[in-house]
TrEMBL record:
The keyword S-adenosyl-L-methionine does not apply. This is SACA1 protein. The keyword Membrane applies. The chain crosses the membrane at residues 138-162. It comes from Pandion haliaetus. One of its GO terms (biological process) is acrosome assembly. Keywords: Membrane, Transmembrane, Transmembrane helix. GO terms for cellular component: acrosomal membrane. The lineage of its organism: Eukaryota, Metazoa, Chordata, Craniata, Vertebrata.
Amino acid sequence: GIGIREVLLTSGCPGTEAKCIVRVEECRGPVDCGWGIPISEGLACVKMPCIYIPPENRFKYVWKMLILNKTAHILPNDSAIMEVCRDTHLVTFQCETQENGNIIASVKYTVHAKTEMRTKKSRRTETGQSRRTMTDAILVFCLVTGIIVTVGVICAMIFMILHW
């Protein structure tokens, strides 16, 4: 894939440095970068970036919609960032970053359906409410325990002062 790497020297550095940078260079590794994380993700739409380094216009971007057991559908979008709105079913997209006709990076995104996002949001809300209730119960328990201990200590001090 594309990226930047630092070439380090581990011996022969100036002074007492254990490591020093010799140079910074563009690197190329495995083409398949796996699954990406969208730039922004809302209930209605998702923004997904291709893999690139500046300047962005030095690469060609090919976006595909991947369909299970079928040939991928090439989309007309040729920009580094694509925004799609959620559909009624899950869709997988792939972006290939190309330079001089060669694929140098590839990343995939799964865009969940509107109904799945609503379900996930309601689950998060339910989980958040149960956590809040649990946290409130723990706080009340600690507060009551603190008050009881404080009153007990004050009573013990008064008892010791009176019987001294």
